[in-house]
Amino acid sequence: MEYLNMLAKLGVGNAHPGGFTATLKQFEQYPLPTASRILEVGCGTGRSSCYLAAQGHDVTGVDIQPDMISKAKIRAEKENASIEFLVGDASSLPFPDESFDVILVESVSIFTDTDTAFSEYYRVLRTGGKLFDREMVQYKPIPTEINQEITTFYHIEKLWNISDWSALVNATGFNHSQIDGPFLFPKSSEDLTEHPDYYQQMDADSFLDHTIWEVISKYNSIMDRYHEYIGFILVIGTK
């Protein structure tokens, strides 16, 4: 079982770097204009989307995994949130040019064709709109064998460093770009304690699926052993 499949099976709503704590801190530090039209790319089970909808924004969420979208729709119904959730690929967003005021991305770009995804974010943003993308980052050189272990586990092409992300956001055409961080990964238990997810939906057979627990064990091992090499950043760009 792959990492992303495990998240879908467990219906995890805070798997992105920094957890839901980082999401809330971002919205506090960078308040969004009232009643913004927001696209969350890789919305997962819709936790961030539902939060934004509750603040009065017009939110659309897309995710490449149908199971995630199904769970996002259930969450929205339980939270009485009006959100359009669609199955979609970050590298080929199903929207016209200049459709959104804000693009929100939480640990998605690194898992797809990153250059193409950024071009799509730029395309569907209106002029003057903003991109906020929180992603994993390599913040010091990593030995080859450790790099290979991490990229193999996450099924990603490479671990980007800060210079890589900065070059990409500028090459795509974004203005006034900035990168906050890097930040260290907090303990996932801390985020769950501070911000429990009352609408998490786990598949019924999850507890009996040993492959899920193998992936969780591997994830925890990587986070514990290699925290000195990897963290996360927030990439911000204006169209």
TrEMBL record:
Gene3D superfamilies referenced in this protein's UniProt entry, alphabetically: Vaccinia Virus protein VP39 (3.40.50.150)
Lineage, top ranks: Bacteria, Bacillati, Bacillota, Bacilli, Bacillales
Protein name stated in the entry: Methyltransferase type 11 domain-containing protein
Pathway note: Phospholipid metabolism; Lipid metabolism
UniProt keyword terms in alphabetical order: Methyltransferase, Transferase
InterPro entries: Methyltransf_11, SAM-dependent_MTases_sf
Biological processes per GO annotation: methylation
SUPFAM superfamilies xrefs: S-adenosyl-L-methionine-dependent methyltransferases
A single GO molecular function term of this UniProt record: S-adenosylmethionine-dependent methyltransferase activity
Coiled coil start-end: none
